[in-house]
Protein 1
Amino acid sequence: MSTDHRGALDYITTSFCDQCWEKQLTEEEEKESHKQREMELGKKKVDKMIEHVRGLQSTEQVPIAYVLNRLMDEIRFERDLKRRVWFYGYLTDCMVQDLELVKAKRSPKQRSPRWLCNKSRVDAMDFKLWFSYARSGYIPTPPRWKPGVASIIPS
């Protein structure tokens, strides 16, 4: 493969005969439909899990740090401050009902409110499955967390 004077690779264009072009198009359509079916099956799994989580009732509450640590461990992200802040904001905006997040009274020394959540719901949640579909856009996000804005989460 040749390069130009800046080191960028040249594009190689392939030409197909009509028969090969039709075959190429059908293969691409099959791949796309297969990918779409897998995404829909995964979304059904996520919906089923969320319904199960919403049905759990318990009185044991844990701080939101418990959720953040569990989420970061399951999706294998480093625990740097930017990602923790993003996930904190996302959880407090999107997952309030699912995890039964509630604001507790804060002491005068605290700058932000203290969030508590339902421990049994957090333990029942499969964050790895949920995050893979949240990142692909199958789980709705609030307007404030648009993909361009939340660019600190790696692809």
Protein 2
Amino acid sequence: MLIVITLFLALLLRAGAATPSPQYAPTTFDRSVPKSLFFSLEELSRLVAISYCVGNTGIQEPFECLNHCSDFKGFALVTTWDTGILDSSSSGYIVLSHPPWPQRILVVFRGTHSFSDAIQDLMTSPAEYLPYPVNEGDCSNCTVHSGFMASWNATKEMILPTLERLKIEYPAYKLVLAGHSLGGAVAGLAALEFKAREWEVEVTTFGEPRLGNEAMARYMDGVFPWNGSAGDSTYRRVTRIHDPVPLLPFEDWGWRMHGGEIFISSNNVPITTEDIERCEGDEDERCIQGVASSSTKSLRQSQSPLRDQQNSPDWGLKIPPSWELWQLLFAHREYFWRLGLCFDPQWRDYPRDGDD
């Protein structure tokens, strides 16, 4: 497994190692993240952290768990789901946010429990492409990761009847999706299907991998336009410096990012509004796409414990000197809070320095 992850790091950086720092032309795009959006993302990250209790210690009614549930007094758990440990596995929960909270039907998708398994699944081979089932002419050349599609197909059978009922019972409630890692990819596919049903939906993902090919990315951008104001965006794809998952599967294999990126440039937790920015277009070099071309050195020069310095060959490839396995793990998990485990967080007071 360590050799696989080491090769992943090398391949990820090989194309960008010799790329000079780009010069950016002036733009009218507003990169700032208003505090209202910042705290909305922070809240949703806590709700995503709770999803890791599903299949672990559980979530109980009315809305109780060993993670952040106590932060959301008045929320009402509707259901949880867990398709089991399969290639198409998916877990999560549906909860209602009643007044005085904003009125919402929240669907939260859990990511994988195993970081190393996620890396291996996404990078060991170019997974089979499957056409995305939209109306003919809408996206005839769109292809998506077969594993993501299988997870969504397994999930929708379990949650669609519940959501149809809730949409009737709570017509004024906003439908909000959130997910981390592979759960973010499933949330993205769910959002497309809900939009096809003419349901208004808001989506926030953390550490979402590339969903599909370039045609799929363009289709996503058409359904969820991004380059307007922060308040008009209904799909927010949050990434973090040194998190490798948003850069997987490999671009060389035809995978592309879609828009909506909000980039966290700090290695620290908690973060502030100074550490986060909106990104322009699909693959903004000032955001996660540009991380792969920064600060590299050869595998033989690296002192990384991920490789056997005595016995490994010199692959002639590049990796960033700071990227060790434990740092990748935390980079993928620390989005406002530490995601990926169901436990009481190490920090409870998030800095709030006033309103907009």
Protein 3
Amino acid sequence: IFGAIYLHLVTIPLLYGPEPLHGLFSYEWKGGLTGLAYLGAGLGIVIGTFICTKYLNRSYTWLAERNPRQSNKPESRMLFLQIGMLIVPFGLIIFAWTAEKQQHWALPLLGAAIFASGIFMAFLCVQTYLVDVYGEYSASALAAMIAARSIGSCMFSVVGFQLYVSLGYGCRGTMVVAFVCLAALPVPMFVYKSGPRLRSNRRQML
């Protein structure tokens, strides 16, 4: 999740920088305005936060009520995670197509906002799922996740620049990330179905 965010952040100085770099198209925002392009993803995070605040626990309760066997099970978080993961590639496709076709500058930012809202929804679902699963040990689980995502984000930040320089914004660049997200879509449903069994096996091994 965080790898996709950092890959996106790499594109901002390339797409909205004051001059084209490495043969890539730029909207050439000058006078320090490039940083304003981060407001697209920032707005998406605000929207994702609002949606999670209003509906994350509601979806958990609704799913638990519909399936009594899943009542109070952490896997009931997976429905909301699935929704977030569906939103992410949609936003990436908008960003990739509009940037590649050099459309109005607001359209890539719209795609970035949609992408960031989905990413943040998925991120919060993963956080709450780990807290539900590990209970009193959740701080250790979250710390391990922070360490893993920090390493991954560092790697994607280094690789991401060369990715876009070599492949561009469109079908060969951002769309690669979108296809990876699409390939990961079955993961929440797999966890929803198999999570209790996997957690039970872990307890028996301990």
Protein 4
Amino acid sequence: MQVPKKISPRAPPESSGSLRDPETNHLSPHNPRLPHPIPHTPDNILAIMRLQTILLPLVSLATLATAAEVTTEYTLTNTCTRKTQRGDSIEVHYRGTLESDGSVFDTSYKRGQPLSFTVGKGMVIKGWDEGLLDMCIGDKRKLTIPPEFGYGQRAMGSIPAGSTL
């Protein structure tokens, strides 16, 4: 008996256009070099249904968790050679309002003094750390900040818990 030096995978079927595996005569639209899919027995179908019952709600929760995002309306844009990046020290004037009723909860304009902070270092709410990146000096933006990027489910001064800013 001669031992083969190399074992080759089964050659693909001739291009006859048939979806049948030439060796087993089973329908197989898959690559014949790969194993056949799991057979559709009652036990396997139940196992797949149980898995779907567990995974579908998890996928839905993951989608909900990532659905919130800061939206940006560009009200004034300038051209510059360098835009804001994480770690930059910036000064901004702002007017903070509640999306629910438009009431102003804080403003730097009234004080006549811009707020100074370092972008991306957690010194301000996450919505500002993300929403104030890639700006030129003199740009103006209107940020809509969901609770996940603001103060979350805790009240902060005149800002109710769960507020969109």
